Amino acid sequence: MGTPWLPYSRIIGVVAATASFVLGVLVSNHLVAPASIQTIASTSPAAAADSVTDAPDGAGVLSFPPSVRRLQINVGPNYDPLTPPEDDPSTGVLAVEAQLHVASDLRERVARAHPDRFFVISAALAGEAHVGFQSFHMYNNGGVSSSLASATANQSWAEAGSGARIGRGVEFVPVLTLGRLLKAIPPHVTIPLLKTDTQGFDFTIIKSADRAALRRVDRVMAEVYQNSTYYNLPDGVVNDLSEWVPHMERMGFQLTVPPHWNSGEGDAHFDRIGDP
User: Fold this and answer.
1) Residue 224 near residue 79 (C-beta atoms within 8 A)
2) DSSP conformation letters of 108-171
3) Which residues are CB-neighbours of 24 under 8 A, at least 6 positions away?
4) For 44-60, b where at least 16 C-beta lie within 10 A, e where not — what string?
5) In terms of CB atoms within 10 Å, which end of the chain has fewer, N or C?
6) What pTM was estimated for this model as a whole?
7) How many Cβ atoms are within 10 Å of 86's Cβ, its own excluded?
8) CA atoms of 59 and 187, how far apart (whole Å)
9) Torsion-angle region of 185 (φ positive above 0: left; ψ -120 to 50: alpha; else: beta)
10) What is the pLDDT of residues 151-209, one digit of tens each?
């Protein structure tokens, strides 16, 4: 069977966004000269020309249309991302999706339906120790169980034919941190919601942002674990709720919606206490 080809415009948009975001990593590590870096894949060139950037001089900055004053961040959305609320044109969504074919679909399908309000970065997030380039393991139908970690033995959703259908079930992806991402979002843009679903790396992602950065967020929704053994998580990477609660309290958040456990996984909500 021949190789399926994506339309040129879809590939260029996502690859350009990925390359620019990786360039931000090089800047932060002094590997290239600092510059103003625009990394958003949007559907409107005019919006990019009129975008607002107010990050410190020399810092990488994501350039959003002036109309976007609030931004929901969705890390690991797969094919079912958050979408901008219909009744609030000032709120946008930034989807951070590691799988290139999924990111391309989101840009073509969702961004076109919400012009200048839905943005895509094709990258994975993790902790500072994982920044750079990593293998991303593709599992389950549509890649919904894909992760930076490999699956443990005897997981039916990780078997050949379950959806790991691209190449050998592995993509090579750039890896950034939440701390770096939050610093690249202009200070005037507020973040009412941060949602993560990253198959074991959610807590590591959150820990990459310090208290000052994380306090820009009103609510965190994350997939948490309870003695889950689905993935071969690297040393130091944990995602149990017992680790989440004390850390989030130190960051100024409280658990407001506990998870409803399903085979050791569940979604938890943490709301910020007090002002940022």
Assistant:
1) no
2) IIIIHHSTTTEEEE--EEE-GGG-EEEEEE--SGGGTT-BSSPBPTT-GGGSTTSS--STTTEE
3) 37, 39, 60, 176, 180, 184
4) eeebeeebeeebeeebb
5) N
6) 0.81
7) 7
8) 12
9) beta
10) 998 888 887 655 544 445 899 999 999 999 999 999 999 999 999 999 999 999 999 99
